[in-house]
Amino acid sequence: MRTIDLSPLYRSFIGSDHLASMIDAASRHEKQTSYPPYNIELLSEDKYRITMAVAGFSKDNVVIEVQENTLKVNGNRASEKDTNKSEAERKFLHKGISERNFERKFQLGDNVKVLAADLENGLLHIDLERVVPEAQKPKRIEIGSRLFDAG
């Protein structure tokens, strides 16, 4: 098992303790689960799409929540008593489709907003966009200009 020493981040960058703890939390979370599989796609400079393979789940079985900078996707299948046939009555020759409940968390960057979510053909698509407020956009400062009056 690999461990990453994050102490250089703490020494070199002011305010990086939050970044280092996010990296550490992400590496711990990745070891815990790999279900359901997903892709993260860059659609344009500030637009992203997360696609998750959620075969067997309907839109009523999936809950998407955003709290602070965390996107959480939960999948809860109906209990056996709610389905037409119980698991004991079904006979599988091969069972390769997982029907287990899941929870997947994604750490979102600052100013990343969820635009839309769609479930089609067993794939859950979540569209995201980074919207940088005007106050946080880079400003060009002309040499020789005076931003404030010192007097």
From TrEMBL:
This is Heat-shock protein IbpA. InterPro entries: A-crystallin/Hsp20_dom, ACD_IbpA/B, HSP20-like_chaperone. Keywords: Stress response. The keyword Cytoplasm does not apply. SUPFAM superfamilies: HSP20-like chaperones (SSF49764). Belongs to the small heat shock protein (HSP20) family. Residues 29-146 form the SHSP domain. It comes from the Bacteria. The lineage of its organism: Bacteria, Pseudomonadati, Pseudomonadota, Gammaproteobacteria, Alteromonadales. The gene is ibpA. Gene3D superfamilies: 2.60.40.790.
